[in-house]
Amino acid sequence: MAAAAPSSRRPWVGGNWKAAATKATIGPVVEALNKSGEGFAAEVVIFPSAMHLESTKEALKVDAKIGVQNIHSAEKLGAFTGELVVPQVQDMGLEWVMVGHSERRHLFGEADAVVAEKARVALAAGLKVVVCVGEKLDEREAGQCRAVVVRQLDAVAAVVPAESWAASIVVAYEPVWAIGTGKVASAEQAQEAHKDIREWLEAKIGAAASAACRIVYGGSVKPGNCTGLGAQPDIDGFLVGGAALKPEFVDIIRGAQA
Ligand SMILES: O=C[C@H](O)COP(=O)(O)O
């Protein structure tokens, strides 16, 4: 059963800039965020590329956190050319790590166990983690949506402490067919998947985790569709790609009020 009214969970909005940002595109977004001049009701986390972590952190003057889009699963600094490791995330004073984005899973071949190990290492170091899950179009058409998401979540649950789910994990449900395609899931489709995830949390982790864990939707979220999605009882915010690189990202953050 869906465990709690959405207003009991602080909304969460992530802006995933992927490898799509340059100084020219970042500037107007940061300016819009800074000009908004408000404390957002939602918790806001921006995920720049490694290239732009420090400059974005310095430029942002609003209550928004910075996170990394991916990490390597090594626990210590070392010879891992091209990777970021948890001690570097901490050295930068960052709190958030994203794992399991569909582009990591499907373009770079990250298996469920690899994603889970990254989550484990980040949580063990005291970082907060966005765990991305979601089915491909053929999986949805084969009626496997719930099974795929449960498989991805089970892998994480097998290696992280149960207490992490309430306070340190945000689950991002991102149907792969809706990412960057303009084909947003309907509010009903998204709510059904989010309810499945909340029921999984209750059955696998416990009622308190199910009530507290933020489950956010990602996939072609825009100012024009975020209100209907955000009104669903089990949708606690958004993970935004393309629209997070436009000044109207501020409108999506405002649309994620509790
Ligand atoms: O991480 C964000 C998602 O991949 C969604 O991207 P999108 O908003 O461009 O569809």
From TrEMBL:
EC number: 5.3.1.1
One Pfam match: TIM
EC class (word): isomerase
Name the record gives this protein: Triosephosphate isomerase
Pathway entry: Carbohydrate degradation; glycolysis; D-glyceraldehyde 3-phosphate from glycerone phosphate: step 1/1; Carbohydrate biosynthesis; gluconeogenesis
Any one of the GO CC terms: cytosol
Biological role stated in the UniProt entry: Catalyzes the interconversion of glyceraldehyde 3-phosphate and dihydroxyacetone phosphate in the glycolytic and gluconeogenic pathways.
Taxonomic source organism: Cafeteria roenbergensis
GO BP, sorted A to Z: gluconeogenesis; glyceraldehyde-3-phosphate biosynthetic process; glycerol catabolic process; glycolytic process
Assembly: Homodimer.
